[in-house]
C-alpha cells in the first residue's frame, strides 16, 4: 500500500518508552503497520506500588510508521480534532497520517501544504490500493480528505462567523481561517475582503453584515489598525489575526501584532502572526460555548 511512501519510511514502528507498559494491539493502516494504544492507557509511575498508576481519559494514541503518534482522543478532550501541520513533513508522511485519521475523525485536514507537495500526495495516493479523495484549496493551502462511511459524522456548529481582511493581500490567512471553520462544522461563514482603515467607508458599508455575526475574525497586516476599529463598532467577540504583510518596519508582522495586543478597544483577542487556523479554532470554541449556554438556559 502506497509502496513509494512506505519504502521511504524505514523501520517498522516501535512503541515509545512512555507507553512501554501499555496494552496494545496491532491494526493496519495505509503505508504500513501502526500500533494502537488501548482506549484507557495506564502509564506506570512507580514499581510495585498499586497506587502508582493512573488512567488518562481520552488518551488513545495511534502510531503511524516511525514518525507520528496520533492523538485520537483530542476530539473527546477538547471538542476539536487533530489537524496535520504540513511544513517539515514529506508528502508520504502527510498522506499516511491523514489516511490513518479518516476513520476516526469527522474532519481530516492538513495546513500550509504547498501545491508541489499536494501534487506529490496525489501521485502517491494513485499508487495505493485504497480510494483516497483529496481536496486542495490553493489560496489557504489546506488539504482535506473525505472520511470513510464509518467515520464520526460532522456536527454542525451554529452561529455566524465573519472573517474580515484589511487588504486583498491578507486573503490567504483569511481563507485558512474560513476553510478551517467550515471543516470544524461552521456552515455560516462569510469572508469580507479589503475593508481596511485607509478607506473607512468600505468597512462602514459592510457594518450591518458584520454586526449580524456572532464572532468576528479581523485579519490585518501593516499598521494592524482594523481590529481595534471593528471592536469599537460591534458587540461580538473580535479575534485579531496580525499578518506578515507590510513594508520593512512592519517587521514581518511584529508591528501589527504589537498594535493589536495594545488595542484600546475592549474585548479583542489576539492570535499569532498569520495564524488563521488558530483564530478559527478559537472562534469555533467560542461558538460551541454559546451553544452550551443556550442549552442550559433552555433547561436541556
Layout of helices and strands:
Blueprint: H1 3-7, E1 24-29, E2 32-37, E3 42-44, E4 53-55, E5 61-64, E6 68-71, H2 74-78, E7 84-85, H3 91-101, E8 109-111, H4 115-127, E9 134-137, E10 142-145, E11 157-165, H5 171-183, E12 186-192, H6 200-204, H7 207-211, E13 215-220, H8 226-231, E14 238-242, H9 254-261, E15 268-270, H10 276-297
Parallel strand pairs: 7-8, 11-12, 11-13, 13-14, 14-15
Antiparallel strand pairs: 1-2, 2-5, 3-4, 5-6, 8-10, 9-10
Helix pairs in contact: 3-4, 5-10
Written overview of the protein:
The chain has 300 residues and is of the alpha/beta class. 31% of the residues lie in helices and 23% in strands. The strands form four sheets. The protein has a five-stranded parallel beta sheet. Helix 3 packs across helix 4 and helix 5 (171-183) packs parallel to helix 10.
The class by helix and strand makeup works out as: alpha/beta
Report the C-alpha radius of gyration, rounded: 22 Å
> What portion of the residues fall into strands of 2 or more residues?
15-25%
* Number of E-state strands: 15
In short:
Helix content is 31%, strand content 23%. The protein has ten helices and 15 strands. The model is unreliable at 1-54 (pLDDT under 50).
Amino acid at each position: 500500500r502506497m509502496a513509494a511512501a512506505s519504502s521511504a519510511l524505514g523501520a517498522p514502528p516501535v512503541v515509545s518508552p512512555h507507553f512501554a507498559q501499555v496494552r496494545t494491539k496491532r491494526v493496519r493502516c495505509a503505508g504500513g503497520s501502526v500500533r494502537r494504544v488501548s482506549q484507557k492507557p495506564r502509564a506506570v509511575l512507580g514499581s510495585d506500588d498499586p497506587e502508582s498508576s493512573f488512567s488518562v481519559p481520552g488518551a488513545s494514541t495511534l502510531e503511524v510508521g516511525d514518525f507520528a503518534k496520533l492523538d485520537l482522543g483530542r476530539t473527546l478532550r477538547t471538542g476539536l480534532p487533530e489537524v496535520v501541520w504540513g511544513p517539515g513533513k514529506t508528502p508520504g508522511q502527510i498522506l499516511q497520517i491523514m489516511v490513518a485519521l479518516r476513520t476516526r475523525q469527522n474532519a481530516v485536514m492538513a495546513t500550509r501544504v504547498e501545491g508541489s507537495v499536494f501534487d506529490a500526495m496525489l501521485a502517491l495516493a494513485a499508487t495505493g490500493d485504497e480510494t483516497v479523495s483529496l481536496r486542495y484549496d490553493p489560496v489557504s493551502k489546506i488539504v482535506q480528505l473525505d472520511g470513510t462511511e464509518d467515520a464520526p459524522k460532522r456536527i454542525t456548529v451554529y452561529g455566524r462567523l465573519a472573517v474580515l481582511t484589511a487588504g486583498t493581500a491578507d486573503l490567504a490567512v483569511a481563507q485558512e481561517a474560513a476553510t478551517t471553520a467550515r471543516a470544524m462544522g461552521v456552515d455560516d461563514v462569510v469572508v469580507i475582503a479589503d475593508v481596511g482603515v485607509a478607506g473607512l467607508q468600505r468597512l462602514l458599508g459592510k457594518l450591518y453584515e458584520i454586526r449580524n455575526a456572532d464572532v468576528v475574525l479581523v485579519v490585518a497586516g501593516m499598521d494592524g489598525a482594523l481590529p481595534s476599529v471593528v471592536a469599537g463598532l460591534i458587540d461580538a467577540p473580535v479575534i485579531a489575526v496580525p499578518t506578515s504583510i507590510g513594508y520593512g518596519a512592519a517587521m514581518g508582522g511584529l508591528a501589527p501584532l504589537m498594535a493589536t495586543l495594545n488595542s484600546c478597544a475592549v474585548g479583542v483577542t489576539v492570535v499569532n502572526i498569520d495564524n488563521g487556523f488558530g483564530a478559527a479554532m478559537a472562534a469555533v470554541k467560542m461558538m460551541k460555548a454559546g451553544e452550551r449556554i443556550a442549552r442550559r438556559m433552555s433547561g436541556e
